[in-house]
């Protein structure tokens, strides 16, 4: 763990109270524990002994592990290190199939979601989208609140079979708590698929 998480590295933290989900900065990485600095408003959502899930980009992919908060001092969490971690995927974000109809709100365009990752989603739509524009989207995942953000089209291709457009886009202004919810959803679905 010490070699995977380094000083000043960003880490997303999800406590039991999901309202406290935030991104922190590693200020100390030792064999037995990590010290992570988070912002003041979220510190009240953390308690000594509470379980946390941590996510951080690593060279091989996305590092994920569960641990326990050992101590809290000011806005610094002392978290027990763990050798029981997983590298979720080689890319930073895994794409998971998501068969769901969504709406691009500002244009009132109905579209169909093909897959999702913490970085964005792939959709199918009858109208060609503009790669210079951000589209307001709203969607839900299993057991989560509605996620609102923007989708910026990056690549658009035409499906020759049905004439619809396949749009790969990235999320813009996705709140940290929502990003963690999407990462967690993708991780759980990936684990479910591997165990089938």
List key phrases describing it:
single chain, 196 residues, mainly beta, Thrombin, subunit H, six-stranded antiparallel beta barrel, 1 helix, 13 strands, 49% strand
Structure description:
- It contains 1 helix and 13 strands.
- It has 2 domains: 10-87, predicted glycosyltransferase like domains (Thrombin, subunit H, Beta Barrel); 96-194, Thrombin, subunit H.
- The chain is elongated.
- Strands 1-2-3-6-5-4 form a 6-stranded antiparallel β-barrel. Strands 8-9-10-13-12-11 form a 6-stranded antiparallel β-barrel.
- It is 10% helix and 49% strand.
- The longest helix is centred in the last third of the chain and has 19 residues, at 176-194.
- It starts with 9 loop residues before the first strand and ends with a helix.
- Strand 5 and strand 6 (76-80) form a beta hairpin.
- It has 196 residues and is mostly beta strands.
């Amino acid at each position: 763990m010490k070699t995977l998480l380094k000083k000043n590295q960003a880490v997303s933290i999800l406590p039991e109270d999901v309202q406290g989900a935030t991104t922190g900065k590693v200020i100390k990485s030792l064999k037995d524990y990590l010290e992570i600095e988070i912002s003041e408003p979220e510190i009240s959502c953390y308690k000594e002994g509470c379980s946390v899930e941590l996510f951080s980009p690593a060279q091989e992919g996305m590092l994920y592990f569960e641990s326990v908060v050992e101590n809290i001092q000011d806005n610094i969490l002392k978290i027990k290190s763990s050798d029981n971690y997983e590298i979720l995927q080689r890319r930073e974000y895994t794409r998971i199939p998501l068969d769901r109809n969504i709406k691009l709100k500002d244009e009132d365009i109905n579209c169909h979601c093909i897959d999702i990752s913490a970085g964005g989603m792939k959709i199918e739509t009858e109208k060609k989208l503009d790669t210079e524009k951000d589209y307001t989207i709203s969607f839900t995942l299993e057991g989560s609140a509605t996620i609102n953000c923007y989708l910026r089209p990056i690549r658009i291709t035409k499906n020759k079979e049905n004439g619809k457009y396949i749009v790969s886009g990235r999320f813009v202004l996705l709140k940290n708590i929502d990003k963690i919810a999407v990462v967690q959803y993708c991780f759980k679905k990936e684990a479910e698929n591997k165990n089938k």
